[in-house]
Description:
The protein is flat, with a radius of gyration of 32 Å. The protein is mainly alpha-helical. 80% of the residues lie in helices and 0% in strands. The longest helix has 49 residues, at 20-68. It starts with 19 loop residues before the first helix and ends with a helix. The relative contact order is 0.04.
Amino acid sequence: LSLYSSPARETKYVENPQTQLEEGVSRLRHVMEPYTAWCQSLLVCCTFLCINSALCSDFFSEGYEFLQNPPAGFYPRLGVIGFAGIVGLFLARGSRIKKLVYPTGLMGIGASMYYPQQAVAIAKVAGTQLYDWSLQGYIAVESLWKDN
């Protein structure tokens, strides 16, 4: 608590009234606010698309060239892998998890038959990632167990 009392304030803040021009500009800004926000979001999207269009055009042109001159046996392999996915969808009636796991698993098995080196490389990376995640989970559970 203060030992001295503060003097009463006798000043009051008085705001100047707005002119008609200021009121008109304020009304116009409030009316145009949704449209300016839409234009700003459109500008952001267009900028993003323009930056990435060069990357996308390179990607699609390479894909188009690859499909024009595919390696020998590419389309039959693609057909077998796609058919495995359709069979997986047929077998996965009922559960949503089955609809995710069966087609993906059967397509992975089909692709690994035709591309074994790539399948081994993917399996190694997936195995190390799975090991790291399980180790992190074990450490988290262990720390919770020790805290309690």
